[in-house]
Design brief:
Tachylectin-2, Chain A; 421 residues; 4 helices; five-stranded antiparallel β-sheet; 2 domains; mainly beta; four-stranded antiparallel β-sheet; single chain; globular
């Protein structure tokens, strides 16, 4: 009797970066290189680069780790004082039927980390990063020439603060930091300096992007750049760039980015072939009472834009019954409905909280339903800057106050995370 058997087959397995991916370190990593696939030799001197080659034709993953930061402090309250203060403060999940328990991201430092954005796949986290107590300096009304007095927390490797603007003291300014992980089941562990940085003293921040199909970069992205025109941050547009792009974006043309006017916290989406841009401003079109949300659209891939329109259905407190206008807008589609997530003052305590509102009429970007409270400040100073992953997890920022702080070290901003059930 003859016997037959089919040849054994194996499935392709793609390479996956390991636990050393995205970690700031003082020497080249030797372990944790690949969670799947075969690691290459590690090259470079910080950042360190390697690949994880897939099996049986599986894709190859590109991985990296950055050089660790340097900690330089002024007259700070100290890490132990801050740890005790933060342990007593937490925001509140106001939708426990939808989300689980919020937690502070473990990569948080004593540098100022706001402008938080998480990519839709949950694998890339960005922050506007400046090693100082920025809020205390702003509240004290000091000139940027005096920011060095408020210096605190790690300076990222490669971050440069020029001394020729106000010699001999360093001119502190914001750059964009990036943290990366190989899977949403592992934490973000440390910040690295992204390619969105400058050594000239101008602030860069508020990065946000629309991932490409392969999740290897962004079809389009926006960020703010103080060097584009006078009068506060302006918005720059990038197209077809990597996960850590350089500051080579094109300044959005008039009627956006007008001199003497602030354009901040941008968010861009491609909807039905039209680019939809949301942002906030505290002085555009004569608005008062803080930042307000605006939007503009482009039907020619960003070459020209419509005149900015105020999103009155989330800004007008007589409509929303909130304690102030909306700011820090973020668009999210749950598969059927567009939602606008935003920050606004909670009328219960007048602290900044996170809300969301559903779009009423499809295609009408000033048609938003009644806002729902998502996260309240709780025992913190306030929360804001919401961004949402495709799974529905919420990334946001928390502002703390240290009652045992010093005259130049009282507040801090850290990234938090609220997992969707």
């Amino acid at each position: 009797m003859a016997t037959c058997s089919a040849p054994a087959t194996t499935s392709a397995v793609s390479g996956v970066c390991g636990l050393s991916y995205g970690v700031a370190t003082s020497s080249a990593p030797t372990s944790g290189l690949c969670a799947a696939g075969t690691p290459s030799q590690v090259s470079g001197s910080g950042p360190w680069i390697w690949t994880c080659t897939g099996v049986e034709g599986g894709a190859t993953a590109s991985c990296s780790a950055c050089l660790g930061p340097t900690v330089i402090t002024a007259s700070t309250a100290g890490a132990s004082s801050w740890a005790a203060a933060k342990a007593k403060q937490a925001p509140v999940n106001e939708l426990p039927g939808e989300f689980t328990t919020p937690y502070a991201q473990p990569l948080s430092t004593l540098a100022w980390e706001d402008g938080i954005y998480i990519s839709r796949d949950g694998l890339n986290l960005y922050a506007t990063y400046i090693p100082m107590d920025l809020l205390k300096a702003v509240l004290d009304g000091v000139s940027p020439t005096q920011f060095y007095l408020y210096r605190r927390g790690p300076t990222l490797a490669g971050q440069v603060f020029p001394t020729n603007i106000s010699p001999p003291n360093p001119w502190l300014h914001a750059d964009v930091a990036i943290a990366q992980r190989s899977a949403t089941s592992v934490p973000f562990t440390s910040w690295c300096l992204s390619n969105l940085h400058m050594a000239t003293g101008y602030d860069l921040g508020a990065f946000q992007g629309d991932l490409n199909t392969a999740h290897t970069g962004y079809d389009r992205a926006v960020y703010t750049d103080d060097s584009l025109a006078p009068g506060g941050p302006k918005i720059a547009l990038l197209q077809n760039v990597g996960l850590s792009p350089s500051p080579t974006g094109t300044a959005l043309p008039s009627p956006l980015n007008t001199a003497g006017t602030e354009f901040d916290n941008p968010h861009i989406e491609l909807v039905g072939g039209v680019l939809v841009l949301f942002f906030d401003s505290q002085d555009l079109q004569g608005v008062t009472g803080g930042k307000h949300v605006f939007y503009s659209t482009s039907a020619d891939n960003g070459v020209s834009w419509s005149s900015p329109t105020e999103a009155t259905t989330v800004n007008d407190t007589t409509i929303t019954n909130l304690g102030g206008p909306a700011q820090q807008p973020h668009l999210y589609n749950d598969g059927s409905v567009w939602w606008l997530y935003f920050g606004a003052a909670n009328p219960a305590d007048f602290k900044q909280a996170i809300y969301r509102a559903p779009q009423g009429t499809p295609g009408d970007w000033n048609s938003w339903g009644a806002p729902t409270l998502v996260v309240s400040a709780g025992t913190t100073m306030g929360v804001g800057e919401p961004t949402v992953t495709s799974h529905g997890d919420l990334s946001f920022v928390v502002i703390y106050k240290n009652g045992s702080g010093t005259a130049v070290d009282t507040y801090d901003a850290d990234p938090w995370y609220l997992p969707h059930q």
